[in-house]
Write a structure and sequence with these properties.
Mean pLDDT: 87
Helix content: over 70%
Radius of gyration: 16 Å
Shape: globular
Strand content: under 5%
Length: about 130
């Protein structure tokens, strides 16, 4: 359920920023949903391969910044093989990556999954959730 919520919110963020930013063009919300799905898949399968060496170089001090840059690179990669999605320049991709990260953080804080609570990432009493 949390994955679907993330996909929908990421697609809404991408589609909304494409409406605001002239450097970004997304044809439809369906395209934005496909972009969000491809971004999730690429970050899962390829992102860690790129993030790990960059984190080693920075001694794991800039993990969040490295994650944003890698997400922007993934967006540019998606741009290169999709005709219905274009990003002109790297900075708009970085702005979208930052907005997607903030939206994901807000979802994780407001609707934590059972696994997040069990791992100690979020305290159930603080959030007011009870899992049976």
């Amino acid at each position: 359920m949390n994955f679907i919520l993330h996909l929908l919110l990421d697609a809404a963020v991408i589609f909304g920023l494409a409406y605001i930013m002239p450097q970004v063009d997304v044809k439809s919300f369906g395209t934005a949903l496909l972009i969000a799905f491809l971004l999730a898949v690429l970050n899962f399968f390829v992102g860690w391969i790129i993030r790990f060496p960059l984190n080693l170089v920075t001694f794991f001090l800039l993990t969040g910044l490295v994650r944003l840059v890698v997400t922007a690179i993934m967006l540019k990669l998606i741009d290169s093989f999709m005709d219905s999605f274009t990003i002109v320049g790297f900075w708009p991709a970085l702005v979208i990556a930052l907005a997607v990260a903030v939206a994901g953080m807000l979802i994780d804080r407001s609707a934590p999954s059972k696994e997040m609570v069990e791992s100690g990432y979020v305290v159930a009493q603080y959030v007011g959730l009870r899992f049976a």
